[in-house]
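Example 736.
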Amino acid sequence: MKMMSGAAMVVEALKEVGVTHLFGYPGGAVLDIYDALHAQDDIKHVLVRHEQAAAHMADGYARATGKTGAVLVTSGPGATNTITGIATAFMDSIPMVILSGQVPSMHIGEDAFQECDMVGISRPVVKHSFLVKKAEDIPMAIAKAFYIANTGRPGPVVVDLPKDIVNVQDSHPYVFPDDVTMRSYNPTLKGHNKQIKKAVASMLKAQRPVLYVGGGAIVAEAGAYVTQLAELLHAPVCSTLMGLGAFSSVHPQFVGMLGMHGTLEANKTMHNSDCIIALGSRFDDRVTNNVDKFCPHADIIHVDIDPASISKIVNAHIPVVGSVDKVVLQMLELLADADFTNQEQKVADWWQQIEEWRSKKCLQFDQSSQVIKPQKVIQSLYEHTKGDAYVSSDVGQHQMFAALYYPFAKPRRWINSGGLGTMGFGLPAAMGVQFAYPDAVSVVVTGDGSIQMNIQELSTCLQYGLPIKIISLNNRALGMVRQWQDMNYKGRHSCSYMESMPDFVKLAEAYGHTGIKVDHLDDLDDAMARCFATPGLVFMDIMVDQNEHVYPMQIKYGAMDDMRLSKTERT
Amino acid sequence: MRRIISVLMENAPGALSRIVGVFSQRGFNVDSLCVAPTDDESLSRLTIITQGDDKVIEQITKQVNKLIDVLKIAELTEGPHIERELMLIKVGNKTELSRAEVKRNVDIFRARILDVNANNYTIEITGTSDKLCAFEDVMSQCGDIIESARTGVCGLARGDKALRP
Ligand SMILES: Cc1ncc(C[n+]2csc(CCOP(=O)(O)OP(=O)(O)O)c2C)c(N)n1
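Predicted structure in complex with thiamine diphosphate:
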């Protein structure tokens, strides 16, 4: 039996579960662990500049790879600084393990220096947490934490480690468990056969079917099966903000993102459907609009790994608990015997209707404007990256423009904070992506507001030579807030504009990077080309139209398809 | 509607706070909560009385069941079940008449006097919550209630049904 210190056990167990990168920041309570990290080079430790960013980096890493992100922070302020990052991961079901230092066991509860009840403060935003009491328990706690984080509906798990159990002096027997199964935790993966039969019958009967694909399809790596199902049924496919890329956005059956800023055709298709096949989506309020008016004609088949998501907001006629890949495969097996010769004809009227909605071209924008339109920037970004970049986003108008104007053909390419809507997520998330895939093109689409939350990570980018491309849509305002104020508060722009904006080019340069300012539409294309031709990090500060709104947009209290199409038109 | 929800969970630190957290975070009511280890000491059994329509109860059971420490959950009020609650109540009685009245009602309700003092009795009573409330009412008529403590309801399904790991 191997004998080692608690600190060494932490590092050893992290290796055992396959951690390659540990995003963290040292402090008193974790110095022993840092000392143990110093003695090895299997795990790359990334020194961030703020613990919130460490959590977002681990999150970006996890979203891009499907692997569990790992974070190490000290007790007290180190731990509390991660909370926004943990909540962000929790809302979007992202697997992450946060190791937090804690004051020595005998001082817990004494208001000791840098003490904070991390298990307590994180409780509402974690899938589970452990306060480890004995050094011998460290391997089991870490093994379980990683198991829980990345099985079932994934989520963040906190492991709180008191300083006395990780000290480097004492030695304890190290036993990594062979098996971490828990009697109280057995996620259902395969769907119930009876439910699958019902679902399949309903799909086959449908005249106006639609697939409503969410983040669960990405988590389950179910893209290929979902595509097969869609093609068999010849059904239109809509995606949530979180699901983009699970089904290719350039597939002819794709009708767009749905919901608050969804396309007209996606929302119309949903509203008029007679059979909604919801795959790993959760009927979020940013999708449904007024629940009482939600899709009145549809039979709803709801596939989700989390039983609590089913019939939480909208009643499911056919609930199926299971992971999207397994369940859709089961459906495909049943459908193998079905006769699809008339399927295309069966849905011909439906498609004719959908084409009519499509012909409204709801994403059109003013091409004659000499002011740079934000949509134009995203289109240019798409061209210059051949649609194949990892695009991380912050939160605001720019996020919606990116989601709508950058079609994602592959899963895990679109990295954004959908559930919590965390400004400051984009840059660190893109860094996490870049650590996972050093040779990939990792882009951040951001705004002048969001980028200033976690801008300090430009320093981390320099330290690790991360060639991130930052596309900042600078509208000199908190654009999304301003849009709501225009629409709902008679244009009273209370605290939604920014005075004293920094010179972002100089700022990028001060951090040792390249900055490019773009004022004129005519320069956009060249500047974008220069951005991707320049090695290293480039900060693109692009002056875009301050008055642009994101459209389409659902009208409050309306049905899914009650939408504003521009400042003057509505459905 | 009043519901009894029974939960079997790991007897682990923090498990209870997670359950209570689900209720407070999601705005569910807790009327009473009763928790203790079971015959298998690694497990705790928790009984919650709550209010809500079917949709709310469905969410409560699903959200609680989702917690990693929870093994099983059942709504006892869905089927035939037995429920009991225990109350300790201290009743002041200065007059002989009052003392006699209290004693008479203790017999009627099959309660038990546990402690006798010059000025008060401390009484134990078990039963359904309704019975306890009725007893409390009667006591307030024949004496002065000084204080009372109730355990909250615990219950089991009738017949072969059981909540086991
Ligand atoms: C941490 C945080 N604080 C506040 C908000 C509310 N909020 C949503 S969008 C937005 C404006 C974002 O401005 P900017 O980053 O400049 O993007 P734009 O909308 O202009 O594209 C704000 C303040 C938020 N989502 N996150």
